[in-house]
Amino acid sequence: MEEIKTRFRADIEGLRAVAVLSVIGFHYGVPRMTGGFVGVDIFFVISGYLISQLLLKEISATKTLDFVRFYGRRAKRLLPASLFMTIATLLVGYMTLAPFEQIEVAKSAQASALYATNVWLLHRAMNYFSPESSLNPFLHSWSLSVEEQFYLVWPAFLLVASRFGRRALVVAMLLLTAGSFLGCLYLTYTKQAWAFYFSPARAWEFGAGALVAISPAANWARKSGSGAVIGWAAFAALIISCFAINEFFSFPGVVAIIPVLATALLLLTGENAAGPSMLLTTAPFQFFGTRSYAMYLWHWPIAVLGSVFVSVNAATYSAFFVLTVVLASFSYSWLEHPIRASRWLAEGSVRAIGLGGALTVVGAVSGLLSLVIAHQAADPAQAKIISATSKFSVSNEAGCIVGFTTDKPLRCVFGAQDYRKTIVLFGDSHADQWTTALAGIAEQHGWRLVTYLKASCSVAEIPVYNMRLRRFSPECARWRQEAIAQIANDHPDAVLVAQFSAGYVKGPFTNLGSNAVDVDTWEHGVRTALKELTTSSPNVVILRDNPTPYHPVGNCLARAEWRGVPLNACNRDLAQTTSQPVLLAEQRAAASFDTARMVDLTPAICSGAVCPAVRDGVIVYRDANHLTVDFTLVLKDELESSLTAAF
């Protein structure tokens, strides 16, 4: 049977360029391109359009579908370059990343090879926008997994629906698209990660492209002046969405309609010579559009692994982009295009399927071999780093930190049974990190230590945005007020306040973006909390937050040890780890009350102008901002003397 083909449209190739450059721009820190991740949505709509057009044309001509041929084409198109990227990433990862990181990368490689990355990420409960996502070089393959999972059901769906006539086909496509969209809306505001990664929740974007493929308005859009105007308006909306949307939106949700609808309208009007096609068909857009798949494959592993060697800035991201284009051009010219154009593979669909199966197996086995090698590579030095950075505090082990969606305080008690004084520890996870040392101090002095701890919630009375929940957290305000009321009932001799201060305030130490508060709001929030706490206790102590290295120190140390690099490469300058405006704001707030004071352990954490990753043989930080339990025990005497002096 003669192979069914669709007509090449240069405007769609240019639209692919917009999609891939948007995603790369977002990942490579192009200023203000906060919504570049919508490039993936553009790809989804384009795929739905092209594949549906191809399948419907074959159904119309033959009354059936050659599934072997269809999946053979997909295998030829996607798998060779993907396998090349996978093996290269695993090899460079072995030389670059610590063994425990290699284990995670190998598992991700296996998921990627099986087109199940989105399922793996849901299993790992990994947020696309969270800092830890930047450590996974296969994170970007989630969208390829979604696409291939869609293709497992879409051809059969179209074939069955078309049996009942064109009207039934259109109705079925509308119902599926609408149902997927409603499901996406529900999940966006209840389980955002599922809305983002789950294939059925993204099917409506493919469906939007498919509906354009059967639209009766194509001839009108191709020729009319209003079609050109609509096209330019859609193009403008698409570009604006790349800069106006950001990671703090509830995405996909309602806001995803903008890039999806804009892309659908561009597909509809794309052949209008007076529309955006005059731009999209130019040589630069064609160049990047032709290589869009390969560029998408390479750009993220380059960013993740490249950032291990160099600090990321405009210059290094520019170098990453050049390397992306070079590798993409190589893999396109020597793998993707030759295999896709192979006569031998084209003459036998089973051959292409066989090639796809073989490449899938090779990719999965490569991940498995990397996993075995990584497990064998672990040594005592690596084990020591992992042990130190994974040790939990006594309050954490006791389950004393309430979760994100809980608003009821949890009162935990440590220290002496026959106590003479009651000390309350009030705060977030930066308060929790001190509980092992504080429990020991309380035991020695005959004190009772009572804790009120909640993850990612400040003691300062401010609106708190939760990055995990992707929304502001009213639970924090309710927890804070009830905890303060319960603290009053404890009649404490002293209240110790500790929190990730700079993490809530606009500046270099927060990932909350515009949802962080300014320094004045922070100062007012601290003062408000102190006003209430000073009525409950004769002594309120603010423990200045520890210096924040703002990079995963445990990972850095493990990588340095693995590569034979001096561990002091993971140190940070004091000026880069502390916020003077936040400190001054808290000092001013404390100075407003005779019974409130601050304790600053920074000199005991940092050495002069340097905050070391390892001090006196003890690892200081367990991640990008928390101290290790072992190091808080090193500071136990310093903390004890500071507290006893304060009250």
Shape: elongated
Mean pLDDT: 93
The amount of beta strand, in percent, is 5-15%
Low-confidence stretches: none
Number of distinct beta strands: 13
- The portion of residues assigned to helices is 55-70%
- What Rg, in angstroms, do the CA atoms define? 28 Å
Derived from helix and strand composition plus strand pairing, the structural class reads: alpha/beta
Distance between the termini: 89 Å
- Oligomeric category: single chain
Count, helices: 30
Major β-sheet profile: 7 strands, mixed
Short description:
The protein is α/β, with parallel strands linked by helices and 647 residues long.
Question: Which key features would you list for this structure?
Answer:
647 residues; alpha/beta; 7-stranded mixed sheet; two-stranded antiparallel ribbon; 13 strands; 7% strand
General description of the model:
- This protein is of the alpha/beta class and 647 residues long.
- The strands form four sheets. Strands 1, 2, 3, 4, 7, 8 and 10 form a seven-stranded mixed beta sheet that branches. Strands 5-6 form a two-stranded antiparallel ribbon. A two-stranded antiparallel sheet has the order 9-11.
- A hairpin with a 4-residue loop joins strand 5 (465-466) and strand 6.
- Helix 3 (67-96) runs parallel beside helix 15 (292-309), helix 4 (99-113) crosses helix 5 (117-123) and helix 6 (142-162) crosses helix 9.
- The longest helix has 30 residues, at 67-96.
- The model has no long low-confidence stretch (mean pLDDT 93).
